[in-house]
Amino acid sequence: MEKPYRIQFFIIIISIAVFTCAYSRNTNLRSSSNTGVHNSNHHFTDTPLHPLDPLTVPEINKIRSILSAYGPFSSSSPSINTLSLDEPDKSQVVSWKTGEPLPPRRASVLAVLDGQTHVLTVDLNLGVVTTDVVNVGSGYPMLTTEDQLTASLVLYSNLEFNNSILARGVDFNDLVCGSSSPGWFGPGEEGKRIVKVQCFSGQNTPNYYMRPIEGLTVTVDVDKREIVKLTDTGRHIPIPKETNTDYLYATTSQFSDMTPETNPMSMEQPKGPSFTVENGHTVKWANWVFHLKPDIRAGMIISQAVVQAENGEYRSVMYKGFASEVFVPYMDPDQHWYFKSYLDVGEYGLGATAMALVELNDCPRYSYYMDGVFATADGRPFIQPNMICIFERYAGDIGWRHSEIPAMGFDMRESRPKVTLVARMVSSVGNYDYIFDWEFQTDGVIRIKVGLSGMLLVKATPYENLYNIPNTDDMTGPLVSENVIGVVHDHYISYHLDMDIDGQNNSFAEVNLVKEESLPGQSPRKSYLKAKRKVAKTENDAKIKFSLYDPSEFHVFNPARRSRLGNPTGYKIVPGGTAASLLDHDDPPQIRAAVTNNQIWVTPHNRSEEWVGGLLVSQSKGDDTIAVWSAR
Amino acid sequence: MEKPYRIQFFIIIISIAVFTCAYSRNTNLRSSSNTGVHNSNHHFTDTPLHPLDPLTVPEINKIRSILSAYGPFSSSSPSINTLSLDEPDKSQVVSWKTGEPLPPRRASVLAVLDGQTHVLTVDLNLGVVTTDVVNVGSGYPMLTTEDQLTASLVLYSNLEFNNSILARGVDFNDLVCGSSSPGWFGPGEEGKRIVKVQCFSGQNTPNYYMRPIEGLTVTVDVDKREIVKLTDTGRHIPIPKETNTDYLYATTSQFSDMTPETNPMSMEQPKGPSFTVENGHTVKWANWVFHLKPDIRAGMIISQAVVQAENGEYRSVMYKGFASEVFVPYMDPDQHWYFKSYLDVGEYGLGATAMALVELNDCPRYSYYMDGVFATADGRPFIQPNMICIFERYAGDIGWRHSEIPAMGFDMRESRPKVTLVARMVSSVGNYDYIFDWEFQTDGVIRIKVGLSGMLLVKATPYENLYNIPNTDDMTGPLVSENVIGVVHDHYISYHLDMDIDGQNNSFAEVNLVKEESLPGQSPRKSYLKAKRKVAKTENDAKIKFSLYDPSEFHVFNPARRSRLGNPTGYKIVPGGTAASLLDHDDPPQIRAAVTNNQIWVTPHNRSEEWVGGLLVSQSKGDDTIAVWSAR
Questions:
Q1: What domain of life (chains A, B) (predicted)?
Q2: What is the tally of structural domains in chain B?
Q3: Residue B256 included in any domain
């Protein structure tokens, strides 16, 4: 049985981002030329050349015409929430060879019409909608930018809302309102697509996040375009001042004096980079070949990663890898905060929130930039330029080295610098910027890294400093500035890794490190460590909770393929810094993010089980999570 | 009360080093010029300019003449195991200002004479030995290179040993023997300074580590220069073949074909680096200033690190930081392996084993190289050239960034590349190369990194592959090549961090993240996380065992210094990947490495408690470890 691997690891936010904004900038890099390779066409004539290539502009246009001609959608036009390639079956993709005709091209469309979610399949070759399933379970597709704009417009035309703003003395020209996914908290808000809108003052700063209009939350039905509920309980809470919140390089002259300047520095490649990107998506570097594409929901998808062995043979490593979900629960029961338990991938989309990268600052010189080709809510194609960058990385690190002590009769100092390949994308999900890296090493290691930058999501408080807070134990986070609390929260990031090491039918083993007592008289040593290998027989065997004092290694291996020594070939999964969710398992946010109940899950390959929070995550009750599939 | 902080974290070895040796090399970098700034004098006339500057060549020569005139040493000359600066009291160092005369210069000497360890203090100004304490507890100083040579010479002149070698058909010209510290395992080997010598065949490979002569261990008294015990039980075990073990760049043409070549790549700084090294040891970069020196035992010592705040004020962060001990227990009870439970810092010395760095491969272009000035066993000065490198690092990473979604009415893409400063040293403790980095960030973060490279310490076995091993459960490690087992082991690295954040008298707080249940009717949320801060009142409060499911943050702070908001100023200690030692607490190796019983210890400042394994570690019973001090 084929098993894809969902590895989940955690990032605990290090909340210094907002304080570092004046630092580590590099003027000269910013003004430099020769910034990289550009894929600078408008994609009007793109054609897919690989079974996994994303939908092209012509294909998206064709899909739009197919949908507009489709019965149910011909009268009133739906909101197209996501429109992306419906990948061919794995067997078709694996057996496909370059030059062969592509398997039939199909699109998967999530659309909302009259409050109902349609899960459609469009066949591009046949030119028809082949399936149209109306969702009867809970949940809605990702919010579109249009949904979020709708919500703001509804607000501005509402008297009660305007009074709340006026009461706070905020000029409407300074008003910035953002739509927040509402989560799911029981029957109260079911049966309609809603968002929770909260506002900020952008007066005298681009960093409106630091100036929240606290205690004002408006629940909006984005399909009916009406306000469901308006709660205004915070008129007594001042809007934090803008002092020192501006982070714009152009206008932060007041920072410049205190910014430690460093001389210009760059990675140079006199002969250019060593990688190529063929047919727009196939990346070849050193001993690696893989398919890379932008995705509206996952952001980046790495497919069919193969590595060349020393004997020249290309060996498959991973069929598909991507970020499946990101869980961000804030820790404040307040009525204006309790619902902030985001599932960024399913509610906002890592591709939908990935802006164009800043050349030379987000990615080094000689980077290759890949555009995202997506669709708007009315089905029109749109281009997200420079959404992904690919670059070779020399970080001053050592790949391998050894020195001998001359006294041993040898005098050897051997060292190889470490050069890697990085594919990078940044998703700006509101205040936060997630920096997603896939790093490939020539020794076969694949490194998944996530960095967190941007701004904190903060809560306004009447208190200017700790001294006038009556009971600091009641605070839901530290006071990070006058009248500003940085509410405690976590970021849990789950990756879907479909490993195909030397082919399919991989297995999973837990290698437990246990203490052995030496036998009487056996040794002066009383105890030593032994590695005990246990191959997972069932999904339950492979529901892993990390344990610091009962440690294990985790191996994905191919039982059918052995080294010349007889060891099965495989990869070791090495978790990074990890933490566990401490929320009640029956707390609504945790039910929806049940993936964080374990740190590793191993489930059979099933194309309908790629999104660990479910296909339709927004407002879902958690009835389609990996915990539910796995319990079946 | 002043508290230095000993933070201990763990590295679990990723044993791919030996397999990566063919990779990530870069011909062009190797042949390049302009390799960095050199401190290329012979130090004949160096003079100390800072109270913490290491002993100079003239000072070492003076100490040698003082010692030779010293009564007990005038007749027979001792073995000088370590000779280094006896740092002035912290109060003197902190109050010293540039330009002022230095506090009295003193040397601390560990010498062995007639099997006794002398702990001496030499006053350079008075020109006399001021204290001479003969050690009555257990333990001896670091082994010297001379000790290790002695051991080999004793072997070669022994008939029984020579017969054992001949019986294995090894040509004496190919014989390589290394001295291993014996650990301590009860009374059997007490009262004499011994080493365990084991040998390898260097036939047809520079990588003799891969060709162990298994089952032959000779115990040698290095002071009496005689063999205490010879055990030969492995004549039936073949010496592994040399096939593909050669890692030398010059002779590995057979690798070249299979090595993925990448184009040359380097960090370039058209205006040169932004840091300066003043008076040989004071490093100034961006907003950081610190004192850096080589040390025979710790390798590198960072002192008086101060960071410049936005208002221009220099604020103290750390008085002293260094690697205090490295515990490397191998997990094999076999009579030839049980004793391999190394304490690399106290037994071998990270400075004593730090070879000259390989320019452009160990450190990037524009690195500054610092020499080590140490003493030989007869007290003569010797120079370890290019022992430490300092460089600015741009790794293609992002220091801070934020993008706004244009739909929000903003179109901002701000990003600052990340540039840091790194001080690096590599210790080659036999087969292993430890890469020690201190990395400083402009946002105030200090990063401690340890990389592991070199070769595995392997055990020869009669078995060529897994198929002819009767019971693989008996193996003490994986079969990594024909007849070669990579024995399971760990590397535990303990750092001593004497934090002085905004001055002395810092405190330690554990911030525990606990689940709170929301009150009935309080919130749709059932649970949330709360940070509960507990300030350590006693040393026991601050004996920290990490807990994944009861997580905490760890803060070092200055209760006397508060931000304008009233928050105490401080640093957060963020552990990296960690593991716990699973050995019995009463197992001799664990008693000596009791520091690994906890992951953080906090103890009062005490100059005699800098080495967590004790001052005299070799063969010690563990009667001077941090666990012993802390229990007092």
A1: Eukaryota
A2: 2
A3: no
